[in-house]
Please model this.
Amino acid sequence: MRPRVEEVRIQGLGVIDEAVLELSPGFNVVTGETGAGKTMVVTGLGLLFGGRADPSRIRPGADRATVEGTLVIEAGGRVAQQVEDIGGEVEDGELIISRTVSAEGRSRAWLGGRTVPVGTLTYLADDLVAVHGQMDQQRLLQAARQRAALDRYAGNKLVKPLRAYSQAYKRHKQVGALLEELTTRARERAQEADRLRFGLEEIEKVDPKPGEDAELRGEEERLSHADALRNAATTAHTALLGDPMEAAGSPHDVISLLGEARSAVETVRDFDSQLAGVADRLAEAGYLISDVATDLAAYAESIEADPGRLAAVQERRSVLSGLIRKYAEDSAGVLAWAQQAADRLTELEGDDERIEELTREHQELTDRLTELAAELTGVRQAAAERFGQAVTDELTALAMPHARVVVQLTRSEEFGPEGVDEVELRMAAHPAAPPLPLNKGASGGELSRVMLAIEVVFAGADPVPTFVFDEVDAGVGGKAAVEIGRRLARLARTAQVIVVTHLPQVAAFADQHLVVEKASDGSVVRSGVVTLNHEGRVRELSRMLAGLEDSELGRAHAEELLGLAAADR
Model:
């Protein structure tokens, strides 16, 4: 499903007090008497999609102008995803866009219920609408758009070589960046290699082991306090088992006291089971204390003051601490740094060989890109000639028989993502005139017709789903006007088309006809925008033809125009 504009609400813009336009998916035409505010419809759509805000367009007496649009889009599609990415909401496939302009010139925009910069609307509009009016920046006047449109017009013949070119270009950029890094940063990389070698040599000389720093810290603590540790163990051992040098009969050690306690309860344990349990626990305590006393004795025997070993441990710790301060938080981290440094050094030491390989690959890719770019240019040139002739033929039917459109391809000095071709649409107003860029080679009214011709030729190739035209019929009439209407109807087969016109020949081809009527005070109110049925269209076309809604001759001509348009479909 292609996105389309379903409804537009305009308040306080120009002569419009309040107006609501309900639009169909196909060809929509807006007509009305001069000064009724038809052009404000195009102005409102321009504001809705990020156009320049002009406070002078605000209706006198109003403090702001507001335009709100309801768009039907595909849920989960590209546009919906863009809206959701910025925090907006799409409900049931409908997107609400709103724009206000204050009398002081301040502008605010909302997208899917979220306040956004006006530039966001402009960005989104690239995928939604092309507004062609004399005061609007034309989408196809942008160089990048012109090349993209020509590529789509070229069709399948360009797809395969462009895909191959894009892949080669991406690799060419990667290789070029690597080469630049390797060659321009040679000094920095050499200095980095020297630092890594120094670090690896320093670590290799010390040869740290995983966890060694923690083990040495513990050993230093024991050696530094050997006497205190031995005395503590001996004292504790004496407290538990007693001093063998003391006279017997005055036991104060824990084991003796536990023995007395156990003997006291053992004699009566059979009289109470609770006391028997206590006796068992006293026995267990005696065994435990004996084991602890044995361990204390062994520990006291193992502790010896060793000044030489203490000095060696302290020296080793000092060396390890130096490495840890430089490279990591502990000895394991130092070893991990050494492994990473060795890998990086291997990479750096292979730079010369790597540079040679990359240089060879870069040249091969350059040659390949040159071939593919030439192939792209050939396909584009053929498409450009077909396109230029097709647009020129369209302009002949649109009352510009002497105009000629050409597509100029200029070769860039550098490879780009899409090749080396710079594409520019140019127009010569008459045979003796040189082709000039579109915005210089055509007047405002002519430019709209040129854009219509281009859009008709591009129809189906250009993904923009909604086209808006104002002044597309300026300065033409008769047969040329019929041809304009016919081409707008043709464009509406693949896109939504919204046209403001004063020509009945154009309006007759519309799928939906809206008329803007002023109230008695000269303003356009909510009821002033009417969707016409067949009888209403006959009356409006008769007014546009003869100036009289009920003229028999005008009505007959209007019926004839509507019949011609219907037959052409």
Remarks:
- The longest strand covers residues 404-416.
- The first helix runs from residue 38 to 48.
- The CA atoms of residues 352 and 363 lie 17 Å apart.
- The radius of gyration is 45 Å.
